[in-house]
TrEMBL record:
This is MFS transporter. One of its GO terms (cellular component) is plasma membrane. The chain crosses the membrane at residues 16-43, 49-69, 81-103, 175-194, 229-250, 262-280, 292-310, 316-338, 358-378, 404-425. It is found in: Cell membrane. Its main location: membrane. The keyword Magnesium does not apply. SUPFAM superfamilies: MFS general substrate transporter. Keywords: Cell membrane, Membrane, Transmembrane, Transmembrane helix, Transport. It is a multi-pass membrane protein. It comes from Candidatus Entotheonella gemina. The lineage of its organism: Bacteria, Pseudomonadati, Nitrospinota/Tectimicrobiota group, Candidatus Tectimicrobiota, Candidatus Entotheonellia. GO terms for molecular function: transmembrane transporter activity. Residues 16-430 form the Major facilitator superfamily (MFS) profile domain.
Length: 441
């Protein structure tokens, strides 16, 4: 194939990738709108924070549990069709909720069941999207492509609460549900306009063939047979465990030293930071050696967690919180680029699904641990008469919220120590050099 043909093929693949990305952005905005609106509606109907939190649980958990099977289907089928059927299934669930609401029959349990089914359909999206991008984007631009999905997510997360609140107040829940259904239709329409090539056959793909259950387990066997990738996976699982508290405890921490209106501005810094980080990763693509980016931004996020808990200052917290989330798409983009180069395209659905399931399985544990530690361990340490009032208190302050601040500091220190220690693990540090890039058979 001559140079002109290669350039034309690459340009065509990039155009197709952007069409897919645009469809995913539209779909994500609709999904975030519905999640926001349904959570608000459930809380308004029940007044129960537990019922409100259950929306988040049933929206996330089924998708995580489904991942081993979804990866197998992604590798077996046309990835464009997988994305279309995923959107169609999730859109149908939203349409059923809208119809039940219009008939006056919508119950809370209907939402739980239908959102759980929608989550199962949604679990096909990320492995299909990631595996398709490998086939469409030149290898040297994997880092930039990896920054595009968090960019879409950050845009959706920024727009959804504002637009959702306006729509709920002005037009009510039905308007949000109808818009969500329309976004799914638009996303399917964009996918209908393009074609995604089937992945080339590789030796790893041939070895993975078997029953659906054996193929689902192959992703795990593939990872554990490669210590460098396994180390990278465990690095991110530990990172998510240690820093998951930053996602669940900023509200009670900021509430201890800021007014309600100021809190919204302070917490918005996280969304802005993630948006800027996604844009930067999409434009830059990360360092030539991606592990340097993972280590560097991992250390930065640890130091940001320390700074966020150091003093009861809205300005300090906003800056640290923004930089903390700025580093997230940077780290994830560098990691994604490594996985895309090292894993053969015809098994990426299975491998990426197992990878996501393990990396994100530590997040719910982190949320549970954070609540217990904050309320029963760290907060009492810095309340009047607490054991650390005279030692740590003069440094970070005492009273409500300061124990949570200390928990942020401890988590940040553990992340910094963990990152420095892993720099001395040769299998992880040299994963890009020691593990060869995939080669088509």
């Amino acid at each position: 194939m001559n140079l002109t043909a290669v350039l034309n093929l690459s340009a065509s693949g990039v155009r197709i990738f952007f069409v897919i990305w645009l469809g995913q952005l539209i779909s994500l905005i609709g999904t975030r709108l519905t999640a926001f609106a349904l959570g608000y509606w459930v809380y308004e109907q029940t007044g129960s924070a537990t019922q409100f939190m259950m929306i988040a649980v049933v929206t996330a958990l089924p998708g995580i549990l489904m991942l081993p099977l979804t990866g197998t289907f992604v590798d077996r089928m046309d990835r464009r069709l997988v994305l279309m059927w995923s959107d169609a299934g999730a859109g149908a669930c939203t349409l059923i909720i809208a119809l039940l609401l219009a008939l006056g029959q919508l119950q809370i349990w209907h939402i739980y069941v239908l959102m759980a089914i929608s989550s199962a359909f949604d679990s096909f999206q990320w492995p299909a999207y990631a595996a398709a991008s490998t086939l469409l984007i030149p290898k040297e631009h994997y880092g930039r492509a990896a920054g595009m999905l968090p960019l879409a997510r950050s845009i959706a997360q920024t727009l959804a609460p504002v637009a959702g609140g306006f729509l709920m107040i002005t037009f009510g829940l039905p308007s949000v549900l109808i818009i969500d259904v329309l976004t799914f239709v638009l996303s399917i329409g964009t996918l209908a306009l393009i074609r995604i090539p089937m992945p080339p056959k590789t030796a790893a793909g041939e070895a993975a063939q078997g029953s659906i259950w054996s193929e689902s387990a192959y992703g795990w066997r593939y990872i554990i047979a490669r210590p460098g990738l396994m180390s990278l996976l465990l690095f991110f699982a530990a990172h998510n465990l240690l820093l998951g508290i930053i996602n669940v405890l900023p509200v009670p921490l900021v509430a201890s030293f800021a007014t309600v209106d100021m809190m919204g501005t302070v917490l918005a810094a996280g969304g802005i930071g993630m948006l800027l980080g996604s844009l930067a990763m999409s434009a830059w693509g990360g360092p030539k050696i991606n592990m340097y980016g993972i280590y560097g931004f991992g250390l930065m996020r640890g130091f940001c967690a320390i700074a966020a808990g150091l003093r009861p200052s809205p300005v300090l917290f906003a800056v640290a919180y923004g930089l903390f989330f700025f580093g997230l798409p940077m780290m994830n983009g560098c990691s994604q680029a490594i996985w895309q180069r090292k894993v053969a395209p015809d098994i990426q659905g299975r491998v990426f699904s197992i990878r996501k399931m393990i990396a994100f399985s530590s997040v719910p544990a982190s949320y549970l641990i954070a609540g217990v530690l904050a309320e029963h361990v760290f907060e009492p340490l810095l309340m009047p008469g607490g054991p650390l009032v005279d030692s740590v208190g003069p440094i970070i302050g005492t009273g409500p919220g300061r124990g949570i601040g200390l928990l942020f500091i401890v988590s940040g220190i553990l992340v910094v120590v963990k990152t420095v220690v892993t720099m001395f693990l040769p299998r992880l540090r040299r994963v890009e050099a020691e593990l060869p890039d995939f080669q088509a058979a």
